[in-house]
Amino acid sequence: MKILVRLILIPLIHCIGFAQFAIPTFQATSSVDRTSPRITITATDGSNAVANGSTTNDNTLTITFTSNETTSNFIVSDIGVVGGSISSFSGSDQVYTATFTPSSNRLTKIYIPTGAFTDGMNNNNYASEIFEWTYDNSAPTIVSGTTMASDNSTITVKFSETVFNSSSGAGTLEVADFSFALLVPMSGNPAALSSSTPSSITKGVPTFTDNTIDGNLNGVTSIFTADLDQDGDIDVIAPAHQGSNLCWYQNNGSQSFTKYTIDNALTGAREAIVTDLDRDGDMDVIAIAESGDKLCWYDNNGSQSFTKTTIDASIDGPRGIDAADLDGDNDVDILLDAYNDDVLVWYENNGFETFTKNIIVSDAGFRPFAIDLDEDGDMDILNPDLSSGELLWFENNGAATFTERTIDGNMNSPRGVSVADLDEDGDLDIVTVSFTDDDVVWYANNGSESFTKSTIDTDLDGAFDAAIADIDNDGDLDIAAVGQYADDVVWYANNGSESFTKYTIESNIDKPYRIQIADVDLDGDLDILSHGYNDDDVAWYQNVDGGYDLGVSLSGTAIGTEVLTVSPASNSIYDAGGNVASTSQSYNTAYLNDKTGPTMTITAANASGTAVSDGATTSDNYLVVTFTSNETTTNFALADISVSGGSMASFSGSGSTYTANFTPSSSGATTIDVAANTFTDGSSNNNTAATQFNWTYDGTVPTITGNSLASDNSTIAVTFSEAVYNTSGGSGSLEVGDFTLAISGSGAMASLVSVSPNSISASSNTYTLGINLSGIANGRETITVSPYSNSIFDVVGNSASTSQSNNTATLNNMNYVLDLDGSSEYASIANNSAYQPSAFTVQAWVNLDAEAGGTTRYFVHRHKTWYIGLKSDGTKFIGAVRDDNANQWQEPESTTNPDPDAGWYQVVLTFESSVSKLYVNGGTSDVDTDNSSGYATNSQTTIVAIGAKYNDGASNYFDGQIDEIAFWNEALTAAEITALYNSGYGINVSANSGNYTSSSNLVSYHQMQSNLNDTQGSHNGSNGSGISSSDYSNTAVQ
Asked: Is the backbone of residue 326 left (phi > 0), alpha (psi -120 to 50) or beta?
């Protein structure tokens, strides 16, 4: 509303200039008073003066009417008002007072029309100066349209009207005039305010919306705005050059316009302006007809019924008009440029709308503009001279005598002008345009009417008119202009230092002539109006206020659910009337924009739906991988996923959840990733990198990779290729029952007591298993360790096969032998009658180091009882049984020719019923029988010698190795002897083997396990002569 007031006052300023100068008291030259009285109207709010044209929030004004001479018939009904009512009228003589009450928030007017009262000599009064005041008691509010910048750096708020930071209606807003508060959600990681005060404040750039008032006004050449019906809103007046019409468009207050014709016979209608020419309180219209050569006045009867009066019917080719009180007599005069007559003229009003034509200069301009340029209290004239290419001003000496002054003598084809204090230095500057040069320029006044030219734009094709106003409501003056050839309506935003930024409002209005600025929609900001001569358009462009851009300082990153509230600081923001904005507002909140990038969480499950955790190892052939975003996305795709160790397929999903199947390429580590900046959320924020999903695919069953046998064959340690467990769930320590043992091998002497280990211990992937053996291992045994069926698993459930490699070992030879040197070494068993039974068997295993050497060599010898040995010629094994009574020996011999390089020989002698038999290597091919009659074993008291003959001393030493000496008090059968041989060297004769059955008839058994102990009974032997522990060795069977 306040801006509206200023714009409506523009024609009135021309009329009276609001100059504060005394109205002279005329001194009559005779005794008859012929001077008309005139009243001056002033106002107060009860304490302070209220200036004409101001805006306040006072509920009433005290109006003072001061006449320049005494009057006795001035009454309340002589007072004209618009927008309110007069009451409490009183006074006399020259001074009267009344109370004025506005009807609503609006522009009001108080005036005294011509001829309302008389002085004492019955002279009718002159019209008073109109007192205009805007009543506004509505506080400014924040209106709809509060928005956050996309990057959350600023929030824009718009007010219901123009606002200031002082109650006097002055001062631009500052950051301290606002406060911020941020409402944050209970969840997430929201941003926070770094400061509750804006970090910056900038007036936003407005935008404009095109609205057509009339699309069929034939050849419209001008446009003018005023509240013609005085209902508080802006109406539009426009002449149609080709249609010879003069029309006005009544605004219903909601910017719906009704067209009315003022004159349909104004030939070549060119320009029209609005002013209260007759000072009767309503708005009249003045127009010119370019081809009709007329200057006309349309008197408004107060109800917008107009009476046409031709002021001048012989002015050739008028193109521009203005109205102002040029001679300072408080009535409205008219200023006109006649192009064809080539004159600049003014029409002097005698106060009763009778006009006298006066030529100012015989050099026509284009469109004159009346303004008190030098601010000396009278109206000067600006005149762009089209023909001479000059911008001129005519200085008024106060008596309507004008002196021509040149502002710019080199202005190519100047057109419309506008005047304001553009640089805010206290004097009036000028803006104009060059039609030919396409320039928009301004002239800075130094305060003494010396002007400096600055160019604003050099590219407004066919520049034709310009106007000045604070279009963006930022406290400085901007410029709007039209380009006739460009078909453009533009405006130039002033940055406060007269540096201008060009914005295009319209680029398709065909041949505009004039531009106007007014608050058409009464929303507190200034709209733009123009027209198109060729397209017959009358249009207005609604200013969508850019509001105030307030800098927001945040810590953290917004997640999009925080709500920022903007509030006026207490007693800080006011409108022009001094109404203060409340700290409590509506439409003052906005959500922060989500600037937090989405994050994808990667999870997985196997084909049966069982979750597979990050870092897990399983044997699943594929995984179903789920990608869950913390917010919705529409552009997440398969290509956004990166993998190693496999491939993705069967991708699907939408919103925030997606799935795909991951198939490993081989056993080993795999990764699934979503890298940063691969997709966006709904706010176009790039995602952050997901936490990598790691999974090890294990499709390989655990295997035994190696083993280690204890030196004493008591344990075997097996190592697996990976960690193993005794359940398919990847848990449970291995037990003895999870393994089986087996021994194989020809000639094996040891066997297993149990196929299960007798103990188990673990170190990492190595398991040490206890071996329970029967017999003494002779190195011919192969032990095999196998997983029990479905008993050993890796962590993912792969079952170890019962068939393995690297799971066998050869038992260490633990079968010690007695190694004799053949010269002095022998062992012995103490004499015992058990060694002279009536039937017996004696066995020895021997390995020859040398041949007999011409002397019988004894393996086992009992003096004068029996022996087994090597015949003196070395060609035979020999056994003997002595009949002491007969003093002779039974001596069966072998057919085998003993060979020191042939390895071990089994030599067995049996005796029963006077029959002795010698078996070599089981007797399968070599057995000799001596059945001399009458033989019986003898009773002796000497030792049983091993490795020598012993009578009174030792002799006939055996050179070689001897083992497995056994003595039975029975004669074993040939089958039993063969069985003992076939079972192999190192067979434990204490145990059954094949056709051999061990029994209590086994008298003694000496296995040479580092000693000569009897493992069967109590007949332990001794080392005899020359034998030490080093003579016992576990030499492998050859």
From this structure: alpha
